[in-house]
């Protein structure tokens, strides 16, 4: 409502005024504030009086000043305006309007907003349309499988695209998907995949083996140093004997190759459309087209609308439409606010111990996230000292860190695997730990030099807590934030410490290899060569149990060097209302929209 906007400007022009207390002004002064004519100002005042927002007592005559009384609290009208914006589908503008007013006002808006989510059915004649409105913290930058960086983006890509194969949620076995079968040679350097017939992209063209070849070539071109780049950079050649067959020849044996093809990074994209729209593929303003069970119907003001794809090659989803309402940073809910989310019906990354147990059910998600620090050993001076790296490890008091953290942090991390923690300095009591840290700092000759910790903006809070713990031990820290898409690039190489997280899901092995290859870039040459040899043994080993032991051996060596400092492990749960049926969890417990139905 435009008149409401005029009131906002007027009210903010007199911040010293108190609601209900008259303020002496002239019509000319008010007209100047709103940059309008005297006549228009009189009309606006009349309308504001009718709405009950102000009281106006005009006083005529030279030297007489009229009385303006603000009757309506600004926050209440701002909430009304934000609600109207949200109902028009402009959630982003609604949040931008309220955020300057502080967390309390945003919280009231979110409480109202929670009632707008959930499952809705509309019946027109004999046709029933089932819609799920789904809240998602964060924003969506891209839905191009080659350019995704965040969990929310990955979740939507999983609904819109498919890969040649799929991994079960435990990471134990790979199953057919777009490819119905595959075979490999004895050396496991050649892989041949046979595609299903009659698989269509959302724009109506049938998928062929040329699209698969194009997808991998495009990924190599757009993200030569991206996530899992060591896998697709290892493809020596691809050929397509016919429209339904593709053959990969690898430079060397890679037991992670099949697992990689099950990731959303390897989702198949249409060659013709990607070439047509170029860099706008995956953007709301361009085209987002895959073969998945849902297609992107549109995106506006932070709301992404998915509609069922009737020609999907597997069973049709029950839901006809999914609206994903993204919540920009700063709009995320606190744990104590979860009670207000009952209408969501499906919630990710929550704990619901405070809710009535009979009203909600919960599923423990198949994966966890693990936060850790790595050390840049290429830096000369203190970081080259094992004693200083050990001092850092001691200074980051894990039990104190867990106290400072809020949410679903359940345990201190000691490994990327499920195994008992080795007893080390962290088992000392507080006084002994501080004393040991002080001894190590004295031993290595620390004189108050400032260290740089680099991480992404999403982990700024964790970085701040690390800074507090180091400061209490007398170690100075400067925090440097870089975008996630830059984190694997050269920007991080100037840092002393790197703070990041890894998802421990069905793709754990891929993620760990990616991490260790990244760590090799900031190790000295002998240590990097040893780690590289260990990774080569893993990639050549067909036995999963043997690979796990090799991974744990790498982990032990890095921890002994104090090059890898574990912080904490986060277990999350997905909560859902009993009316939701068909709960089936993907990586990290995200619900597959295609499996949901409501009774």
Radius of gyration computed on alpha carbons = 29 Å
The average pLDDT score comes to 84
Strand count, sense and closure of the main sheet? 7 strands, mixed
Category from helices, strands and their pairing: alpha+beta
Describe the structure concisely.
This is ABC transporter substrate-binding protein. The protein is an alpha+beta fold.
If you had to describe this structure to a student in words, what would you say it looks like?
Residues 7-116 form the Transcriptional regulator SgrR N-terminal HTH domain. Residues 174-487 form the Solute-binding protein family domain. This is ABC transporter substrate-binding protein. InterPro entries: SBP_5 (IPR039424), SBP_5_dom (IPR000914), SgrR_HTH_N (IPR025370). Keywords: DNA-binding. The chain has 599 residues and is an alpha+beta fold. It folds into four domains: 2-72, Arc Repressor Mutant, subunit A, CATH 1.10.10.10; 76-110, no CATH class; 135-327 and 577-598, D-Maltodextrin-Binding Protein, domain 2, CATH 3.40.190.10; 366-573, Dipeptide-binding Protein, Domain 3 (Dipeptide-binding Protein, domain 3, Roll). The chain is 33% helix and 24% strand. The chain contains 18 helices and 23 strands. The strands form six sheets. Strands 15, 16, 17, 18, 19, 20 and 21 form a seven-stranded mixed β-sheet that branches. Strands 4-5-14-13-12 form a five-stranded mixed β-sheet, sandwiched between helices. β12 and β13 form a beta hairpin. α2 (27-34) packs across α3.
């Amino acid at each position: 409502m435009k008149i409401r906007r005029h009131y906002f400007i007027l009210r903010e022009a007199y911040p010293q005024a108190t609601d209900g207390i008259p303020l002496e002004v002239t019509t000319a002064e008010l007209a100047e504030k709103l940059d309008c004519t005297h006549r228009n100002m009189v009309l606006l005042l009349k309308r504001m009086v009718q709405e009950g927002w102000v009281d106006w007592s005009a006083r005529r005559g030279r030297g007489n000043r009229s009385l303006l009384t603000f009757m309506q609290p600004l926050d209440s009208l701002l909430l009304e305006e934000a609600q109207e914006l949200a109902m028009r589908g402009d959630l982003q503008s609604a949040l931008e309007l309220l955020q300057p007013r502080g967390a309390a006002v945003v919280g009231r808006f979110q409480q109202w907003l929670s009632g707008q989510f959930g499952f809705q059915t509309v019946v027109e004649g004999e046709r029933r349309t089932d819609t799920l409105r789904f809240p998602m913290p964060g924003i969506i930058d891209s839905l191009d499988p080659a350019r995704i960086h965040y969990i929310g983006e990955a979740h939507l890509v999983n609904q819109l695209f498919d890969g040649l194969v799929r991994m079960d949620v435990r990471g134990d076995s790979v199953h057919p998907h777009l490819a119905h079968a595959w075979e490999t040679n004895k050396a496991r350097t050649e892989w041949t995949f046979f595609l299903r017939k009659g698989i269509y992209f959302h724009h109506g063209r049938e998928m062929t083996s040329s699209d698969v070849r194009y997808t991998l070539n495009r990924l190599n071109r757009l993200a030569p140093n991206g996530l899992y780049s060591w896998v697709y950079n290892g493809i020596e050649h691809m050929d397509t004997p016919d429209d339904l067959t593709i053959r990969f020849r690898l430079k060397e044996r890679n037991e992670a190759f099949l697992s990689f093809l099950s990731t959303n990074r390897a989702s198949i994209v249409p060659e013709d459309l990607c070439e047509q729209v170029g860099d706008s593929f995956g953007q709301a303003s361009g085209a987002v087209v895959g073969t998945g069970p849902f297609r992107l119907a549109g995106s506006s003001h932070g709301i992404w609308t998915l509609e069922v794809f009737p020609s999907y090659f597997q069973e049709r989803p029950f839901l006809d439409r999914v609206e994903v309402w993204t919540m920009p940073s700063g709009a995320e809910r606190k744990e104590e606010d979860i009670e207000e989310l009952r209408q969501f019906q499906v919630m990710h990354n929550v704990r619901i111990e405070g809710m009535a147990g009979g009203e909600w059910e919960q599923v423990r998600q198949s994966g966890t996230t693990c936060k850790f620090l790595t050390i840049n050993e290429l830096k000369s001076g203190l970081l080259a000292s094992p004693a200083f790296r050990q001092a850092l490890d001691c200074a980051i008091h894990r039990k104190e860190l867990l106290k400072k953290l809020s949410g679903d942090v359940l345990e201190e991390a000691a490994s990327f695997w499920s195994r008992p923690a080795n007893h080390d300095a962290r088992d000392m009591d507080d006084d002994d730990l501080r004393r040991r840290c002080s001894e190590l700092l004295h031993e290595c000759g620390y004189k108050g030099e400032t260290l740089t910790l680099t991480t992404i903006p999403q982990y700024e809070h964790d970085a701040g807590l690390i800074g507090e713990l180091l400061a209490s031990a007398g170690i100075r820290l400067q925090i440097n934030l870089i975008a996630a898409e830059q984190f694997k690039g050269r920007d991080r190489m100037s840092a002393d410490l790197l703070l990041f997280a890894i998802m421990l899901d069905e793709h754990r092995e891929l993620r760990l290899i990616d991490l260790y290859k990244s760590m090799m870039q900031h190790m000295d040459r002998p240590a990097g060569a040893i780690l590289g040899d260990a990774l080569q043994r893993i990639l050549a080993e067909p036995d999963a149990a043997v690979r796990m032991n090799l991974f744990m051996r790498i982990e032990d060596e890095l921890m002994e060097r104090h090059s890898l400092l574990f912080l904490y492990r986060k277990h999350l749960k997905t909560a859902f209302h009993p009316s939701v049926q068909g709960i089936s969890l993907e990586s990290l417990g995200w619900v597959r929209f295609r499996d949901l139905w409501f009774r």
